[in-house]
Design brief:
Length: 242
């Protein structure tokens, strides 16, 4: 694999490389989506393709790459429980609550993470924040009646502890972005999220909302890559997996 050249890529690569230490032969492994996960999948293909791993991808993109890299790819339906999922994040706070979905794969990512005994996040240091919300929060919604769902979300945000209240449908070029499961993504420009569990719960209860990009109680640890090629670790200290 080509060595990364930019400082940001070096940091992502460092996190992905260290994550290989968590992978044991014979594991049933969830594979994340995004630019950091691409490094992970390539490294797994190069160094561990012969270790009897069963790999469950979190998107069609990751499935295609993992197959190309010679990994043994299975659907979650065929594997049931997973030992470990390794995935990127758009933001994470000190308690390892995450914002995910910048690449549009939050629904499969959350299902795969929830099916895993452990989830390890790989990210560069720019993703570590003291409070979530600078990254727009992705919310996956069904296409039917999406404008109505958007209005419900806007009304909800009027009473939430957030700094911004903008909601926009994600696009891909001139077209609406459509997820692997055929849904739209609404991106919420919140600036700061004061009550992530409450906001997630209230968004989840709205008709038309499929899933939010807030990952609560799912990540067990984060490997944070630095631009100098080193890594730092963050462990979730308390609380059961939800
Ligand atoms: O839907 C995409 C995922 O949640 C990604 O894991 C997230 O966007 C981080 O991606 P990247 O590693 O490219 O920063």
């Amino acid at each position: 694999m080509q060595e990364p050249t930019t400082p940001a890529e070096r940091a992502k690569f460092a996190a992905a490389r260290r994550a290989l230490d968590y992978v044991e032969p014979g594991m049933r492994l969830g594979l994340g989506t995004g630019s950091t996960a691409v490094f992970l999948v390539r490294l797994l293909g190069e160094r561990m393709a012969d270790r009897d791993l069963l790999c469950v991808p979190t998107s069609s993109r990751t499935a295609a790459l993992a197959t190309e890299c010679g990994l043994n790819v299975r659907a979650l339906e065929d594997v049931d429980a997973l030992d470990l999922t390794i995935d990127g994040a758009d933001e994470f706070d000190p308690g390892l609550t995450l914002i995910k979905g910048g690449g549009g794969s939050l629904l499969q990512e959350k299902i795969v993470a929830a099916a895993s005994a452990r989830m390890v996040v790989i990210a560069d240091e720019s993703k570590a924040v003291s409070r979530l919300g600078a990254f727009p929060l992705p919310v996956e919604v069904v296409r039917f009646g999406w404008r109505s769902t958007m209005r419900h979300i806007e009304r909800l945000l009027a009473t939430e502890d957030v700094d911004g209240r903008g909601v926009r449908r994600r696009t891909a070029g001139d077209e609406p972005f459509v997820t692997d499961e055929g849904h739209f993504i609404l991106d919420l420009d919140l600036g700061r999220i004061g009550d992530a569990p409450g906001l997630a719960r209230r968004l989840d209860s709205l008709p038309g909302v499929v899933e939010t990009g807030l990952f609560l109680g799912l990540a067990d640890a984060a490997i944070v890559g630095r631009e100098d090629g080193g890594v730092d670790f963050v462990e979730r200290v308390s609380g059961d997996r939800t």
